[in-house]
Input
Amino acid sequence: MRKPFVAGNWKMHKTASEAIALVDELQPKLADLTSVEIVFCVPFTALCPVANRLKASPIGLGAQNVHWENQGAFTGEISAAMILEFGQYVIIGHSERRTYFCETDETVNKRMQAALNAGLHVIVCVGETLEENEKSQTEEVITRQMRIAFNDIDLSLLKDVVIAYEPVWAIGTGLACDAQKANEIIKYTIRKPIIEMYGEEAVRDMRVLYGGSVKGSNAKEYFVQPDIDGALVGGAALKPEFIEIVRAAA
Ligand code: PEP
Output
């Protein structure tokens, strides 16, 4: 049995004090939903104060990006060790980083290596753009993203990885991917490459999330799918609606 997993991607929202207020609003209502692994992926500046707030809580904490070097002259960057002092997770390869910040499959792989080797848990995102979807390139694109992301990642590190299927056209648009279709894409473009690279046993334990306009009202449609183990939530993670999504997963 794979434990359901729901992560909130807060993106570039919430100052440190606003983040504390949101945690204080959500946390008490999430406290009894322990059958779900819950993670808040907050801006870097909120990691320290939110970590203090979550000290006695099972809710996990993560960042939204990480650099691949351990330290050095990389102005503006944050290393895995810096995140690890406060949180356990990091999102890697989100489509907003791929689109706006020159993230490539190769840099996703470098970040994966650095994060996992340092002891962080990774939520790695893959997904096709609208154009790729319309050109029927979904399978080719995601299979490529998967193969490069996992290049040289040792089987022993897979226990620390969660994969998110996030069709780019569904993120923040309100146009969620049909749940059965998402399940099929996850099965053939995410789970299949994992089997090919690591074998059947690895895929049984691998948690795969759907992300893209998940709401309280549609979350259950995804969670009843056999190959979907939870959600990566953007917009709705900043609202009390996040509790409804976690409840649906529970
Ligand atoms: C995301 O940013 O990962 C995301 C899925 O956003 P939204 O839920 O707003 O579509």
Remarks:
- The domain at 5-249 is CATH 3.20.20.70 (TIM Barrel).
- Residues 9, 166, 171-172, 211-214, 232-236 surround phosphoenolpyruvate (CB under 6 Å).
- The mean pLDDT is 97.
- The longest strand covers residues 121-126.
